[in-house]
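Annex B, item 7. Sequence and structure tokens for protein A, then protein B.
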Amino acid sequence: MSFIATPEFLHFPQALSLQSGARIRDYTLAYETYGTLNAERSNAVLVCHALNASHHVAGVYAGQEKSEGWWNNMIGPGKPVDTNRFFVIGINNLGSCFGSTGPMHTNPETGQVYGSDFPVVTVEDWVNAQARLLDCLGVQQLAAVLGGSLGGMQALSWTLQYPERVRHAVVVASAPNLNAENIAFNEVARRAIVTDPDFHGGHFYQHGVVPKRGLRIARMIGHITYLSDDVMNEKFGRQLREGLELKYSTQDIEFQIESYLRYQGDKFSEYFDANTYLLITRALDYFDPARAFGGDLSQALARATAQFLLVSFSTDWRFSPQRSREIVKALLDNRRDVSYAEIDAPHGHDAFLLDDVRYMNLIGAYFQRIAKEFA
């Protein structure tokens, strides 16, 4: 049974300095909280979201069907991250299109919609913005910061930017940076968007159009990378749509996998902002805490003082177990407290969102351990 979630909004008139050297002021962050902050303010858990997710982490919206939060199986009363014990916070990142200030909003400096003029944001910028919001909530130290994929990068960055504010970091299906293949996938997706005739240099809002063709292709590319080869073959194989015979056409949708990808692309193009997609994939590309240390990840992670749990999945080729093991090694080089689990799951990168019993039990056990610290 899901609980009712209520989105909230905080406005920040003061400027936030970004890594690019730009500044953004008069911005709003959308967020949700679940559970109750205890008297000692010691039970707060920040959940960081990935590319196409948001602050709506758990629960449902009143009167809205199919409105479950994107990690509703993980977070809630009696669930692995138990909101009877923890005060859980989900924050929508700057530049997103789900309530926080982003390219679809008005630039206070010009009175015009930002569009492609919205400043480039990084993982580090998001963490700084999240820290400001936590200040407003009276949370000075987090019991844990938790995230998967791009959310895991934010969790890792929290331990480096604000080491004294994080007791535990749970980094799932993530990496210390993107490899060349991942950057390449992101670039192909971005080119699909920016070369769409309806993109208009990122100012398509003024033309009353949306670059849906580019968004569809970008999402199709993404979905291919989120699924493992085994799952794709098991779900679709070489099945034709509706048992049809081959049409010998280069234009028709004939295979089930084609139909699935078209469906996902169509759905995505109806709700996701094209400029947001460009911004978030670029933030993924830029994340690399070791860069300031000559590529030495061990040196980069020396600042972290939190205890860590890292989780990877055997068939995740987008963020492979090897990448999580790089983080584990760097933390062990610094004699940090780190636990690591590599789960043999068939689902590919999407496994971090699914109900694998071993995975859920692992997260649940780790958070039970955290809860004992303030029981």
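Protein B:
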Amino acid sequence: MDKPIKIAIFDDHKHRRDALKLMISLRKDMQCVGDYENCNNLVYDLRGNIPDVVLMDINMPGIDGIEGVKLLSKYFPDTFIIMQTVFEEDDKIFNALLAGAHGYILKNAPNDKMIEGILEVVNGGAPMTPSIARRVLGHFNKKSDKANKELFNLSNREMDILNLLVKGYSHKMIAAELFIAVNTVNNHIKNIYQKLHVHSVSEAVATAIQKNIV
């Protein structure tokens, strides 16, 4: 990327915000453009310098992180959102993803995993801490309704790719996993978007949750 990735932080703990700012400051390819203790003035705070990525805490006083995601999705749809929390409650995970979050990483994840997640999300991936991914997949497996595969007319290959998108794989990672070209992956994903009537990875994952497709 020619320009640094612009990142905004929402977290009600100052020491956490400071730690994230320090982490970002050590990278030449990243820049912190703001840090905030809640989402009460999110639209006003961000409209002057729209970030590429938001690191969003879930539990904050006032307007919390899930409501913050809804605001970001409405007013800044091109901004990628990575949720951060110390919790692993299923409801919070799924509500955040349904609201439009693109990834979900626990706060106790090492810095290199957070950096990796930021780079992954701007390249089309959906980063998730492994423990989060296992919970999401477990939820899908419990609620799976294979009839929905036929309902949306998804092919076996499209189902394979949708499952990998749910796991947080990027387009390149899917290509490597399935031994196919990236362009082939892109074409399949376009078909998935058309069949699910969505326009992004996060919408596809949200639809998979809501419709129990995978």
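Comment on protein B: Residues 182-196 form the longest helix (15 residues).
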